[in-house]
Prior knowledge:
Two copies of one chain form a homodimer.
Chain A: E1 8-14, H1 16-19, H2 28-37, E2 41-48, H3 52-65, E3 68-72, H4 83-91, E4 95-97, H5 99-109, H6 116-119, E5 123-125, E6 129-131, E7 140-143, E8 146-149, H7 153-162, E9 174-181, H8 184-197, E10 202-210, E11 213-222, H9 228-241, E12 245-248
Amino acid sequence: MSQATRVTAGLVVIGDEILSGRTQDANIAYLAKWLNEEGVVLSEVRIVGDDRLAIIEAVNALRERCDYCFTTGGIGPTHDDITVDAIAGAFEVDVTYNEEALQMLGEYYGPQELTDARKRMARVPDGGGLVKNPMSGAPGVRKDNVFMLAGIPGIMRGMLEGLRGELAGAEPMLSASVTVLAPESEMAEGLAAIQDAHPEVSIGSYPFFRQGQIGAELVVRSTNAERIPPVLAAIRRAADAISAAWVDGES
Amino acid sequence: MSQATRVTAGLVVIGDEILSGRTQDANIAYLAKWLNEEGVVLSEVRIVGDDRLAIIEAVNALRERCDYCFTTGGIGPTHDDITVDAIAGAFEVDVTYNEEALQMLGEYYGPQELTDARKRMARVPDGGGLVKNPMSGAPGVRKDNVFMLAGIPGIMRGMLEGLRGELAGAEPMLSASVTVLAPESEMAEGLAAIQDAHPEVSIGSYPFFRQGQIGAELVVRSTNAERIPPVLAAIRRAADAISAAWVDGES
């Protein structure tokens, strides 16, 4: 795949709870796969705390260098939810109430229960729009090429469902793998030669020690399905050459 | 905790397999907790692919703004393991063989089996040292304030064990929590008032929808143990005020 046709996204994960280790992130891998299905490559992730300047810096870096920038976290009703304000700061615009979001929240909570705290969830950077949330009343927010999604995995996934087909993606990246039951150091020279002979695909080597076995999963990636099988075959031959067992993978 | 006494670390996670979503990261939360035990705050994480320029940019940014910079991944024997070379580039130094590492690898594999590919794992940025690896022959690498660790979780954890007490840490951050079984939007105004009244602690609100229940875990953090209980008590009173059930957490 040529660089020219790559459509890229960056992700800014916002939350002290990830940086403190309290919460295991569950959104990065999910978003990465979802983007891949949409023909978009996740090219960089930054994890920052609930800190206005850190969010502004990360979002400005990734929205400029990537075609899209996603954020997760910090769009709820509490005092530590500062994503919308920070991203308005990144764009140097004010924050305004979005009428459609106010209406959605009013329908969800009922007009009596639409407190000031809940109204916070209808605030968007000036000129921004909404990302639908099928799970609760509070929508995500879009401003230009920046999508602000919820941090709760179930809600983030729902918002992504609503965004299917909305991004201008390129061709999806395809992959297939062979698992070789040998130390990757024994395969290294053969793999380097195969990669040199097939510069049009990328070959990743992911070693593992599991259930007492040492091995490596060798993943071949290309946007062109026809380019993958010859490389897999070369890897199998390289494994045979060092008398290592191998098994074809699922991805 | 004043900013002046914070000791910070950044982490650069290196690997196409994380950005493609194939592999769920298992190192960030572990490293965050380990750092916390050493009195160091993880202040930013960047995830980049197996790309020399991306690694150089991320490492240079984090080694300059943080007291320590850790990397995971890309220190194995295969063609896609480029961390040591990239970090030598970040420091603008050459890569050299480390004699101690060559000896360790020779003892591990046996002199006959110390192939060129395996010798790659003894390469360090000029002036760099080693991080011991209790699990296999290949050590991690240290160059100034940058620690290059393995990406395989079991090996990374072993390397961290060997680094215990090696960092100059500040006071560990302490935390305690109350889980309130109510939508966080109902607690938001009370929490904001409590945070305003207790600027010396940080209060995080982490909402959840699980097993049919809506709630939020409210985490109070401080380096001073005495400052936490009064804030927990204020949160319990705020929950009582909206007739919400609550339960004390473990962390």
